[in-house]
Amino acid sequence: MFISWLKKGLLTGLMSVCLTAMIGLLLVGIACAEPIEIVIQGNPNQMRALQPLIDEYNAQQNRIHVSLINTEISNEQMVVNYVAGLLPDIIESGPRFNHVLARAGILTDLTPYIQRAGGSTFMAQFIPATLLESQHNGRYYALPTIFSIEGMYYNPEVLGQSGLSAPSAGWTWDDLKKMAQKARRYNPDGSKQIYPIISEGWFQADFPMLGQAGGEFVTQDYKVVINSQPVRDTFGFITQMIDEDLWEHIGNGVSSIHGPNERVPNEAWFTRTAFTFSATYRQERFTQNNAPFVTAPPIRYKTDTSPSTRFTDRGWAICNVSQERKDAAWEVVSYLLQPKQLAQWVASMGMIPATRGAIIDPVFRNYLNTNKNMQTWVNEYSSLPPARAFPFEMEEDMYLADGAVVADLHRQMLKRTISVEAFITEAKRALENLINDPDRPWRHN
Q1: Do 283 and 431 sit in the same domain of this protein?
Q2: DSSP 8-state secondary structure symbol assigned to residue 146
Q3: Residue 163 above 70 pLDDT?
């Protein structure tokens, strides 16, 4: 019996030693396993602001290692990288990228991940205005992070010098014109001492105003409606303001109404301008340059119409890489979308987060408490109806691609080398050609 007991004990001990050894080898294997390398590429400034969060993520776990590429993506380069098998895993995407890259098969359909994360409950965290441009054919290919709003700032110091008070809630285009006329001043040599209105580009002013007047270029079901009274009213007002030396578009700093090489210096824009059409993403730039701009209440076409504005966003998209890397990338995206992390990142850049949880997070609330302008953007603009001049899928072909005909016509109108009627006539023809072009896949989805 003793020998039997001894054999049993030896067997049990041997099994225990073997099991311990196997566990040890397994743990060593796990410890020695290389982490999954995940690369995020995006806007340089925004990636630099993201770096502390990535360092924190890498330090708290060793299964996934994230690195950043501080280079803005382009659709052309992403296609090249796709063909070469060199795609990053996550990109900071946006409306001008989402649909082009989704159609090309470069972006991963996030809908299955969303469904596993809770479906509609998961998506309820996002501000609704940010979601439309993240979809393609009803599927999600990006998740919003930064919520941008187009609107207007005023300079209280400049207005005060002309005896003007701040614009009040419910103000209209006519109110803007009267205030701009009173604020404008010239030097003895005829140069501009006080600029009445500056817009850095048509996105900040023309399209929000077009929506406020109830106008569109193309409906969401691809009907060309640019030949309409709201379009005439909008561009008639803008071009009249340009002709009266009350308004300047300064795309890339070049004035729309002066010579092709004449620029409005930043100093004049920041401190000697009464009103500027701009957006939330320029707030930090104004702050850094001590521009005393204050966010104006939403403007409207007439007293009996409603305000609206143009929303844009940036978000995380996962590229069509291996399944293992896609799964790891989703874990990273989920981490970065957590309220605290998103609030910390976006507040550090002076922007607005695209989720409700991040907006109410103490980090962002503390930022709001110290920034009255952002309080106005969040409280008065974020729930406005969105203004869209055309389906978002068309933006690349109309305004961003090289040789975009509508963009060129738009520029000519603002420079006053063609009339509003000529713009409408020629743009209508160009839009109809675009929509009927069989090589435009967005039209046939």
Answers
A1: yes
A2: E
A3: yes
